[in-house]
Amino acid sequence: MTEEPADSGARAENPPAPSGEHEPWSGPEQEPGSPPAPGRSRRVRRFRLAAWVALVLAAIVVGASVMWVNGPPTEAELREKAGLFNKDRLRIGVKSDTPGIAFQEQSGRRAFKGFDIQIAYLIAADLGYRPDKVDFLAIETEDRARMQALDANGRFVGVDLVVATFSVTRDRQENPSVGFSTPYLYTEQSVVTRSDYPGKITSLGQLENKKVCTLGTSTSETELARATRATVTAKNLISDCAAGLEAGDFDAMTTDAAILAGFVAESGGAFRHHDIALEKTEMWAVNAGSNKALRTLVDLALYRSYADPQDQRWEQAYQAYIDPLLPASPNVNVAQAEQPCALPPPVRRWPWERTLPVQDCPSR
Questions:
Q1: How far apart are CA 242 and CA 221, in angstroms?
Q2: How far is Cα 165 from Cα 102, in angstroms, rounded to an integer?
Q3: Which residue ranges run through the membrane (predicted)?
Q4: Which DSSP symbol is given to 132?
Q5: Could you tell me the residue range of the domain that residue 96 belongs to?
Q6: Do the Cβ atoms of 129 and 196 come closer than 8 Å?
Q7: In Å, what is the CA distance from 11 to each residue of 5, 8, 15, 18, 177?
Q8: Which letter, b or e, does each residue of 178-189 get, where b requires 16 or more Cβ atoms within 10 Å of its Cβ?
Q9: What's the rounded Cα separation, in Å, for the pair 132 and 11?
Q10: Are residue 225 and residue 131 in the same domain, yes or no?
């Protein structure tokens, strides 16, 4: 007798899979149109967020890589291009006869002192040279463009930089052997006479028919020739003009006020300084010659000095060497007491390395 199941209409809740098939059970099926399970929704959101972050990071990396490869050189690359990596000492051409600006002692260590010397030390330090690794060589006015100075044996040798009251002009900028940095001092042309000179000189035109001494191949000689038919004597050294003025060989001497102020201060009242009201500003800059990488590094040093409020080296140089000259030259704009504005040169740096402000220079 065959037994019937107790309930022939009952269905197994989970019927066994057909023979040979072993599909795992994934839980109860979701009804169409019902919201996704909470766990699945969170997983999808996390995946989408991670993908978005990955895309953004990839874009940043690619963009930074392109900029890094195609951007301006780094400071280290500039040092290599400038030839500084294997260079033990830095040669700088400077004036040797201008009190307060660049003067070489005549005895003892024959050290160089003055405002230009401190600016040269400032730049050398940023190039990686200690003061004892800097050689100063006396350079005359006409040799500044050629970058040839006299060594201790009286021979002409090439220098790496010229920091020697060298004013920026259009003609000099067009000279391929001259590579000017951003300016480091503003001054103007002026006139010095003996104290017994009758009257006050307020223009170069008043030097008509006078015997006037100035520096040869200088901006002062050019302006003097344009303004008057004075009897002009051009010297290689401004100290020769001062000596001739004191001896009565000349009625006056003229050049940049910052240069003349030192002679007036040292004269003990024998000289008088005259402001001739020229609008033209004399802008002193460093000559790096045809070494463009070195010029960029000089610009970087001057920019850091200008933009960093903690860097007071320029201000200290002015206070130590130019400030003491001012009392002897009243009513003469000897030199502006602020460093000329300097913009950041094209040097590649990461954003977190750009700690100094970038601002427009005021129009002059």
A1: 16
A2: 9
A3: 49-69
A4: G
A5: 75-185+283-328+342-348
A6: no
A7: 12, 8, 8, 16, 102
A8: bbbbbbbbbbbb
A9: 101
A10: no
Question: Which amino acid would we find at residue 257?
Answer: A
pLDDT at 337: 97
Alpha helices by DSSP H, listed for 278-354, are: 292-307, 313-321
pLDDT exceeds 90 at position 42: no
Per the structure, the count of domains in the chain is 2
pLDDT of residue 5 exceeding 50, the answer is no
Binned at pLDDT 50, 70 and 90, residue 12 comes out as: very low
> CA–CA separation, 121 vs 134, rounded Å?
8
- Could you report the per-residue pLDDT of 183-211, keeping only the tens digit for each? 999 999 999 999 999 999 999 989 989 99
- Give domain status of residue 56, yes or no: no
- Give the DSSP letter of residue 66: H
The sheet with strand 97-98 has its strands ordered as 97-98, 102-104, 112-113
User: Is the Cβ–Cβ distance between 119 and 141 less than 8 Å?
Assistant: no
Q: Strand pairing partners for 62?
A: none
| Displacement of CA 305 from its chain's centroid (Å) | 8
- Mark whether 257 and 305 lie in a shared domain: no
Sign of CA dihedral 145, 161, 287, 252: negative
State whether 180 and 288 are in the same domain. yes
Is residue 290 one of the residues assigned to a domain?
Answer: yes
**Residue 55 CB coordination number (10 Å):** 10
The length of the chain is 364
> Residue 175 falls within a domain, yes or no?
yes
The backbone torsions φ and ψ at residue 252, rounded to the nearest 5 degrees and listed phi first, read: -160, 165
Q: How confident is the model at residue 267 (pLDDT cuts 50, 70, 90)?
A: very high
Domain CATH code at residue 231: 3.40.190.10
pLDDT at 11: 47
Residue 172 lies in a domain: yes
Please check whether residue 62 is in contact with residue 72, taking contact to mean a CB–CB distance below 8 angstroms: no
